[in-house]
Amino acid sequence: xxxxxxxxxxxxxxxxxxxxxxxxxxxxxxxxxxxxxxxxxxxxxxxxxxxxxxxxxxxxxxxxxxxxxxxxxxxxxxxxxxxxxxxxxxxxxxxxxxxxxxxxxxxxxxxxxxxxxxxxxxxxxxxxxxxxxxxxxxxxxxxxxxxxxxxxxxxxxxxxxxxxxxxxxxxxxxxxxxxxxxxxxxxxxxxxxxxxxxxxxxxxxxxxxxxxxxxxxxxxxxxxxxxxxxxxxxxxxxxxxxxxxxxxxxxxxxxxxxxxxxxxxxxxxxxxxxxxxxxxxxxxxxxxxxxxxxxxxxxxxxxxxxxxxxxxxxxxxxxxxxxxxxxxxxxxxxxxxxxxxxxxxxxxxxxxxxxxxxxxxxxxxxxxxxxxxxxxxxxxxxxxxxxxxxxxxxxxxxxxxxxxxxxxxxxxxxxxxxxxxxxx
Length: 424
Description:
Shape: globular
Helix content: 55-70%
Structural class: mainly alpha
Strand order of the largest sheet: 1-2
Cofactor: heme; heme b
GO molecular function: metal ion binding; oxidoreductase activity; quinol-cytochrome-c reductase activity
Mean pLDDT: 92
Strand content: under 5%
Keywords: Electron transport, Heme, Iron, Membrane, Metal-binding, Respiratory chain, Transmembrane, Transmembrane helix, Transport
Domain Cytochrome b/b6 N-terminal region profile: 13-224
Main location: membrane
Oligomer: single chain
Number of helices: 16
Number of strands: 2
Largest sheet: 2 strands, antiparallel
Low-confidence stretches: none
CATH class of the largest domain: Mainly Alpha
Order of helices and strands: HHEHHHHHHHEHHHHHHH
CATH superfamily of the largest domain: Cytochrome Bc1 Complex, Chain C
């Protein structure tokens, strides 16, 4: 990837600014002249979609914070009053709620694409690690925001999830009381969660800035996993990738608008439209859908393992299920990046995607012997994929021929497309 800049200020003001603070040069190199591989597909547009959704969440969150009252007796009513009587409250409140779900939809697709095409492999390990840290902060931000609704499901989830900290030996009770500000969910809890929920999005902005910086330093991966060999295999980000991003964002926003205007409550839970009561708990606790796979893993641990209780075991499994993504660059030992050329890995990969969907379904279902059993099986495969398949499959896997360059891959695909066209 070339590091030189093609930016040339044309006007006296821009030349003066460029000599003292080259911010326009920086933006030009970032969003105009940055060279991207010619063979990128639409799955690579979700980085731009995520950036847009983050801006959307921050702006709508600022508006909602102006009307929110962090008081246990007023929080639920303040939200409802703003939604019904506030200026454009009918738009901003569901926009923020639906936006969080679509933020995670884009994040999961972005994460799955990176895993499929080997975007975690050298020299992009740090890009992957920062991306996982972004995901962790997203999860924390979403959980805190969910509790701010202060509905029945919100307070129940806050009580149950925070109660897991008590299972940690020695420091567990202290962590639990520090997080809640007391022995139970109450006013100090709401104050803490409100301040942290407002802070974390700006941490996200910082991490995403590092993520983009890292991508621009080592260059973007592509579906073949082959590094760029010559400048002819790249195109400027603008207009080529920009036009593709605009089209993908437009399609994404159509689905977003459908849920926003026609089904704003579809992804919520009915119990969260009942004012929260810290003295009672919802009979069937269901977190937001993007937490359900991990919630199923937590519930799957129903047995003690030596001195480790089932509760603490569930906490360990929950933490391991998330933190294991940080080690993917070293767990995956295949020399071939892209799953396009790894038939066996491709099969296990799609089984893994189906496994995560199954875990999400089980996480939303009531606890029964059957659901616990299948949750245990699905949890087992989740970790087998990372700890067994990724490191040991490359020793036995027969890969397909990898193109020597991006240009070779494009030529083959163009030839196949012409052949299909002639047959048609």
